[in-house]
Write a structure and sequence with these properties.
This protein is of the alpha/beta class. 45% of the residues lie in helices and 12% in strands. The chain folds into two domains: 12-73, no CATH class; 76-384, Aldolase class I (TIM Barrel, Alpha-Beta Barrel). The protein has helices spanning 12-18, 23-26, 29-39, 46-55, 58-73, 114-121, 143-156, 167-177, 181-191, 206-212, 219-231, 248-265, 291-304, 315-326, 343-347, 357-366, 389-398, and strands at residues 76-79, 82-86, 130-134, 161-164, 193-195, 236-242, 268-275, 310-311, 370-374, 381-383. The protein has a four-stranded parallel sheet with strand order 2-3-4-5. Strand 2, helix 6 (114-121) and strand 3 form a beta-alpha-beta unit. Helix 4 packs antiparallel against helix 13 (291-304).
């Protein structure tokens, strides 16, 4: 049953200072001195972050990150019951890494109406708390297309939280509608938008962006749009796509820019790092990340991002097996039930889409942690109970 819990990480430094460091941290002077810097309130520099990423053992790096995660949230791992809906795959851009995008004349292109959204949400309405909506930059759609969709969703499903639109989608709607970013976001919020998902950050280094996603917003614009959302009371996530052509130093710069923006506007809820998936896309020179590198990236993110509470193991991208390792390596969130997802699966993901809260809970329990169902803004929590053997046997039949 739902519990009125107060789960925050406001005193995490104090708790970290009282914890006993695991041997992989104690036995590595670089990690131990990093821990001491963090406990002392010192921000880890990009140079140190790069050094740790490149030189420390995976066990040591993951142990330090997991220690920090445990200081923040104990053994809790968060998830929500959500549904992904991609509004359109028609896009006026053609980013080199994207396998999802279609041109308007493609026989595989589509665009969903407000009625389509209602019909897709209806089968899940009795248990989801969030609908996650992103898509291409439709060359004809304006702000009104999205306000109509959001209003229809809220009228039909008033308790469902709408997480929608990446920064480039906001910029596109602003330009198409002849409005400022502030005016665009305000109108979207008034029509039912609750939060932004944070996708499209890729790497916040413009020399890299110009090569892999030319035509998208600049790094400064991405951060500015999120900052404006924060100022209007719209919380957001932030992301990183790694394993294309960027260097480790570029990744550290990306993390630094996110935390500096968080210092200013404070509205990032969760950071979501995910590796480039090569299948069916157009970036043959990409430096594809290994499973080892994925865990390293999640771990260093937890160590570097001192002012962003949550780190997500995005199972739609990395899969359940790596996600189960990630939640013992610094991540405290494991995405949700999802129900339907296209962008990652078109690119090559094979992660199952039919999990319910019990399946997600079993995954978390199997990794030695406690699953906590959350709402979209990390303000309502339900600690999940471990199912008995009898319940586990009955569940597949009942569903």
């Amino acid at each position: 049953m739902e519990q009125s819990l107060q789960i925050t990480d406001t005193d995490w430094l104090s708790r970290l200072s009282e914890m006993t460091a695991p041997l992989p941290v104690v036995n590595d002077e670089r990690l131990l001195s990093t821990l001491q810097k963090i406990v002392g309130g010192e921000r880890i520099s990009t140079d140190r972050g790069k050094m740790l990423f490149e030189n420390c053992t995976l066990t040591g790096l993951a142990s330090l990150a997991n220690m920090i995660k445990s200081a923040r949230f104990g053994d809790y791992i968060f998830f929500n019951e959500n549904l992904h809906i991609n509004s359109t795959n028609i896009c006026s851009l053609a980013c080199r890494f994207c396998a999802f995008r279609k041109g308007p004349r493609s026989p595989d292109s589509y665009e969903l109406s407000a009625t389509d959204f209602i019909s897709r949400i209806a089968p899940f309405n009795d248990h989801i708390d969030e609908v996650h909506i992103v898509g291409g930059l439709h060359p004809k759609w304006t702000l009104e297309n999205y306000t109509e969709i959001y209003q229809a969703i809220k009228n039909e499903f008033p308790t469902v939280s709408i997480k929608s639109l990446t920064a480039i989608e906001v910029k596109h709607l602003s330009s198409r509608s002849g409005l400022s970013i502030d005016e665009t976001l305000s109108s979207l919020k008034d029509s039912g938008l609750n939060s932004l998902p944070g996708g499209g950050a890729e790497i916040l280094v413009d020399s890299i962006r110009n090569r892999i996603c030319h035509g998208k917003e600049t790094s400064d614009e991405y951060l500015s749009i999120h900052g404006k959302a924060h100022s209007l009371g719209i919380p957001t996530n932030c992301t990183m796509l790694f394993g294309t052509i960027e260097s480790i130093g570029d990744r550290m710069e990306h993390l630094d820019r996110l935390r500096l923006q968080q210092d200013i506007s404070g509205g990032f809820q969760c950071f979501v790092p995910y590796p480039f998936l090569p299948d069916n896309s157009r970036l043959p020179e990409a430096n594809i990340a290994s499973a080892n590198e994925v865990i390293r990236m999640i771990s260093i993110s937890r160590i570097m991002l001192d002012n962003i509470s949550h780190i997500k193991a995005y199972r739609m991208n990395i899969g359940d097996k790596i996600a189960s390792i990630a939640i013992n390596s610094g991540a405290d969130d494991i995405d949700g039930t999802v129900g339907h997802e296209e962008i990652m699966h078109v690119a090559g993901s094979t992660t199952r889409l039919d999990y319910d809260k019990n399946e997600l809970s079993r995954l978390v329990f199997s990794s030695g942690s406690t699953p906590v169902r959350r709402n979209s803004t990390y303000s309502i929590f339900e600690v999940m109970e471990r199912l008995s053997l009898v319940q586990r046997l009955i569940l597949p039949v009942a569903n």
